[in-house]
Amino acid sequence: MDDLQRLQGTWTQTRFEENGVIDPPDVHGGNGAITTIEGDTFAVHLPTGELLLAGRFIFDPTTTPRSITWIDSMGDDTGKLLPAIYELDGDSFVFVAADEGMPRPVEFVTSPGLTLRGFVRRNAP
Question: Which tops the pLDDT comparison, 27 or 36?
Fold first, then answer.
């Protein structure tokens, strides 16, 4: 099964770091937010169902670390290309994304301009 197939389904956010700070206020739902991935699109909802963020992604599992680029379709980053890296291990998914125009991250830590989100699988595809 390839990474695109493995990403399909619903994930619950369990970890958040931004600009080197662990668990800062999170306008995109914070821990407990639910991300659904269908094809190459994503949607982030609060547990109450409110849509917080949506968009699509492009990834390249052949790089080390594996690369993903997020493209939001709503919010402050609409249409921006957010370079990121990801790790997908069983029912765990982690990514670190940079602000548009920054180089793609190379390790799973944050500093100014970098955001890390970690998830556990909520249900199988």
Answer: 36
Domain CATH number, residue 95: 2.40.128.20
Model-wide pTM > 0.90: yes
Provide the number of structural domains found in the chain. 1
Does residue 122 contact residue 11 with C-beta atoms inside 8 Å? yes
Interatomic CA distance for residues 53 and 36, integer angstroms = 11
As a whole number of angstroms, the distance between CA 107 and CA 97 comes to 10
From the CB of residue 4, how many other CB atoms can be counted at a distance below 10 Å? 13
Distance from first CA to last CA of the chain, Å, rounded?
12
Degrees to nearest 5, angle at CA 43 with 5 and 106: 65
Q: How far is CA 57 from CA 62, 82, 88, 97, in A?
A: 16, 9, 15, 12
Report, as an integer, the average pLDDT of 59-79.
94
Q: Domain of 67?
A: 3-123
